[in-house]
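Incident log, structure service

09:12 report received: a user says their structure output differs between two submissions of the same chain.
09:20 pulled the input from the user's history:
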Amino acid sequence: MGNNRLDDYESRRKHLQNLTEDELEQRFWELAEKIVDPMIEMAKNNTSPSIERSVLLRMGFSSIESKAIVSSLMEKNKHLVGKGVGHLVYRVARDKDLSIREAGLRLANNDEELLAHLEQVFGGGK
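09:34 re-ran on a clean worker, output below:
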């Protein structure tokens, strides 16, 4: 049984045996990217209200506040939620010189100025 493993290894490595150390490293990173890219795409394109609330909780909002912020954005600007609600709160706070807390609470209350700003910054979510 031990020989079968060695034979398998020898046959599987044939296409790599003539590569330099740099070429092997490059090949490694190419394969690693092939593995990771679909996960990154999935993370970029898929979220849920639960995930977004979880992020806001870690930013210091209460459960009730987090739910209100996510609900407000889902209701008024659903296409923006894919940008990440925590990111939206942070961005509007930074751009409008507000605290994270103030920005989040104003978004929870459907602040038209802040919602319009997010639309402008993110080009309608595209």
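09:41 both user submissions now match this output. Likely a transient worker issue. Closing.
09:42 reviewer note: The mean pLDDT is 86. The CA atoms of residues 93 and 103 lie 5 Å apart.
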